[in-house]
């Protein structure tokens, strides 16, 4: 039954779990031809495209997912990452500031806006957002790593090392935190 969208979704999920992202992409695209507008499917496609380093495609897929279901886990973060990868900093920042105005205590928005500011060389502003996010989730490895990078940018090396160590405690195989700590 080639017209059974759920079968294509399941096949895409199996391929993604097997780290065969090209096959996952194909399966999700097939499913979307049968179930256009399905936000979670666009999110899955975005994840596959992100893994394939197709930043423009991933950004477009995440944007379509966001239109239909902005509450999907990690969607704001992934959309921000792709916008930053594409150099669309102003777009990312404007969107995140709008979201932050609606809910100043949204961890994902605080983390994503901090990341955007960090990438635009505004470490002091990023630090303020990361500190707010840390109150909400003090043991988040991604946050701790980003906080370490900002501390490093500000010349606060002992605090940066502490952040990297904390990130590695939370996620022992976190190569990016290990790399930044080594620097």
Can you tag this structure with a few keywords?
183 residues; globular
Description:
This protein is mainly alpha-helical and 183 residues long. The protein has helices at residues 5-17, 21-34, 39-51, 55-68, 75-85, 89-102, 107-119, 123-136, 141-153, 157-170, 175-182.
Task: Describe this structure in a few short sentences.
This protein is mostly helical and 183 residues long.
Radius of gyration: 18 Å
Order of helices and strands: HHHHHHHHHHH
**What's the total count of β strands?**
0
Largest sheet: none
End-to-end CA span: 54 Å
In DSSP terms (H or I, runs of 4 or more residues), the helix count works out at 11
- Amount of helix: over 70%
Query: Any idea what the shape is?
Result: globular
Uncertain runs? none
Average per-residue pLDDT, rounded, comes to 97
Class derived from helix and strand content:
mainly alpha
Instruction: Give the DSSP E fraction (strand runs of 2 or more residues).
Output: under 5%
Secondary structure layout:
Layout lengths: L4 H13 L3 H14 L4 H13 L3 H14 L6 H11 L3 H14 L4 H13 L3 H14 L4 H13 L3 H14 L4 H8 L1
Helix pairs in contact: 1-2, 2-3, 3-4, 4-5, 5-6, 5-7, 6-7, 7-8, 7-9, 8-9, 9-10, 10-11
